[in-house]
Amino acid sequence: MLEFDADNCSFPETNQKNVSEDGYELWMRYRALEPPYCAACNRLLRSLVFPGCSGSKTLAAARDELLRGICGMLGVTPLLSTAVTGEGTLCVGTSNTMPLISALGLPLDHLGKEGYFIGTVDVNGFHTTLIAANEDTGLLYGVFGLLRALQTGLFNSDFCVESVPKVMFRLLNHWDNLDGWVERGYAGRSIFNWWELPEYVDPRMIDYARANASVGINGVVVNNVNASSEALTDGFLVKVAALADQFRPFGLRVYLSAKFSAPIEIGELTTADPLAVEVRDWWKKLANRIYLLIPDFGGFLVKANSEGQPGPKDYNRTHVEGANMCADALEPWGGVVIWRSFVYSNDVARDRVTQAYTELTPFDGQFRSNVVLQVKNGPLDFQPREPINPLFGAMPNTNVGIEFQITKEYLGFQTHLVYLASFWHEVLKTDTDRWGRGSTVARVVDGSLFRSCRSMAAGVANIGSSRNWCGSTFDQANWFAFGRLAWNPDLDPEAIAREWVSMTLTRQPEAVELISDIMLRSHEIAVNYMAPLGLAHQMGTGHHHGPGPWIDNSGRTDWNPTYYNCADHIGIGFDRTAQGSGAVLQYSQKLSQTYSDLNTVPSNLLLWFHHLPWGFMLASGRTLWQELVIRYTDGVDGVERMIGKWATISDVVDASRFYQVSAYLQIQLKDASLWRDACVSYFQSLNELTLPSETPPPQHGLEYYKRLKYPHAPGNPH
Ligand code: BDP
Asked: For atom 2 of ligand 1, which residue has the closest CA?
């Protein structure tokens, strides 16, 4: 981050237009606002009344951010003052730190610990802007709220907003190994340098914490869910404590992924049985040691009995027994256990997507109150598109949180432009229909549907040591959008896109419009060229990058694309109706009917739920085969359209980022064509049908695509 010079109030070299940027500043660039907006904001923010920061690193962080932002955008440092003595004062404080706020008698209780109020009040006859909260963390969020309003052109003399997070735990999950390698990471190595910690803490950690706080993320799981027990050793915990000290002022708590077999691997026990007294004792002692080092430690994230990870079932115990044992150890300290629902057994089921629901719903009501079940958005595994996970709404007596994947493991890595918030919104607004109309996934996640005592949204991070953090400019938008949606799952993805573009790329209105439009269409485009009409898991084994619809030889049958497409010379699609695997019956009666009926199932989930003959006639008037090929082709055309649109804005985005996006779009076009041609070739080899006349033939024969390898694809565990 460029050093901000408060005395001279400047970032001179970056306030110029069209100076190339490396993306490090993310959406916190604070470039000069354009007149006359700048002058109007200046009049409202001439002086600043801010509480003394002694003893509160959070207040100091809030003040620094405010000055950094105001100086960057308005070009002047506001006068620091102790009282409102004229027009255009910004007052920041809690009722404890600022008598003025208690004197105004504003109702603040409902803001809780993290919410804030920004509004205008009359103080001694002077127009004054106020940022008020109950706690310092709320003020920090309020400062970021005000800066966002300035950056997006919304701030004015009537500006008024009250914002309280709807979700309690808003977490990033880093799939970072302790040696710095990142599972499914496409932005370089881990930003956490465990080798150098605790003595050296990279200043980048502060910018990382600022970025998270700016979008309301309040917790971070620092190590991979495929965990190493070493993360729980004393030697490692002091490193985690050093990070926690840096993050604390920004309202960011640390969590650790805990390996269930740790009592054996590092505790010298002979068992990890959750009912064994010595094991329970071991976890309690571990928790005690952790909280002595990290008093605000968040808790454990556990991946148990999934993809070869150890868990309670190794001892014929249940998920509840495992989770509750960890919960009991953390409970005296206020910690939580986040237990993943991504469980699937070693015996391949008739339909893998049914497993978690079958296994976990019988335990509803039995998990401790400090356990949160972390449920992936869909029942399979972060596919380009999936229906909602049937667990949402099915466990009314359990804290259920959502897990999204921000890193684009299944969506083209960092080189494909795919804005994920439109898809996340599609998931969040879906009505589970189990508890009357409006029992949406969002209301499960924010805890309002069942008055859950703990609510949670987690995102698998896409952050690495790459200079621009995420590997690409547009992947930054997914980090940003995750934070915004975790704070408020009802936010509109279009509004989030506009915010991000204005803060990150340009405030020029036509360009904001055009870039947001590219973003909002991008997910559907990627789904079309990779997995249209509800297909899933068609990517190659391991790397999950290129197409592999023909693959049928993976270690497990349910890792094979052929298991999911069920394609042969007669038809395609996975029959999950009552006559098939019955997975559809795991949804509410109404959703189940909608998905089962060929007249009502959404076309984008058709082949998820149905196996149909190639000649099946669709409402579009085309056969299934024709529609499939046309969708694949539309996906490629969509990328071409993105390229055309992006090319028109070269004069409003700085040269470096413009160039990188342009180059990545070319990679995306190449990959999209590959996806389309490989999949069309393979399916055509089965059905031997001709292509719709308006669509081009694949460039190569099927054998060419089958021979392609991706040996150096990043993020792939070996
Ligand atoms: C899969 C990833 C794998 C993760 C797993 C998980 O391919 O690397 O370990 O999800 O969520 O999608 O645990």
From this structure: 184
CA dist., res. 149 & res. 394, Å (int):
39
Instruction: Tell me the CATH number for domain 16-163.
Output: 3.30.379.10
Position 168: which residue type?
M
Of all helices (H) and strands (E), which one includes residue 207? helix 204-214
* Coarse DSSP helix, strand, coil percentages of the chain, rounded to the nearest 5 percent: 40, 10, 45
Q: Tell the residue nearest (CA) to atom 12 of ligand 1.
A: 381
382 lines ligand 1 (CB under 6 A): yes
DSSP state letter for 635: H
Active site residue 640: no
Question: Is the model's pLDDT at 88 over the cut of 90?
Answer: yes
pLDDT tens-place string over residues 40-80: 999 999 999 998 888 899 999 999 999 999 999 999 999 99
Instruction: State if residue 408 touches ligand 1 by the CB under 6 angstroms criterion.
Output: no
Is any atom of ligand 1 closer than 6 Å to the C-beta of 537?
A: no
Q: Where exactly does CATH 3.90.1330.10 map onto the chain? A: 528-574+611-707
CA quadruple 634, 637, 642, 648: dihedral sign: negative
Query: Which of these is catalytic: 331, 381, 433, 654?
Result: 381
Q: Where in the chain is the domain with CATH 3.20.20.80?
A: 169-504
pLDDT on residue 718: 75
Q: Of 265, 281, 307, 640, which residue is the catalytic one?
A: 307
Q: To 5 degrees, how large is the angle CA 563–CA 569–CA 570? A: 90
Confidence of residue 97 (pLDDT cuts 50, 70, 90): confident
Query: What fold does the segment set 528-574+611-707 form as a domain?
Result: Alpha-d-glucuronidase, C-terminal Domain (3.90.1330)
Question: Which one-letter amino acid corresponds to residue 3?
Answer: E
Mean pLDDT of 351-365: 96
**Residue-level pLDDT at 623:** 98
Looking at residue 100, its pLDDT comes to 87
- CB of 236 within 6 A of ligand 1: the answer is no
Topology of domain 169-504, CATH: TIM Barrel (3.20.20)
Strand order in the sheet with 47-49: 79-81, 47-49, 89-94, 126-133, 116-123, 161-163
Annotated active-site residue 7? The verdict is no
Instruction: Note if 22 is an active site residue.
Output: no
Catalytic residue among 176, 331, 409, 433: 409
Query: Which H or E run includes 485?
Result: helix 473-487
Which one of 174, 183, 406 would you pick to mutate in the ligand 1 pocket, going by the greatest count of ligand atoms within 8 A of its CB? 183
Sign of CA dihedral 273, 274, 276, 278: positive
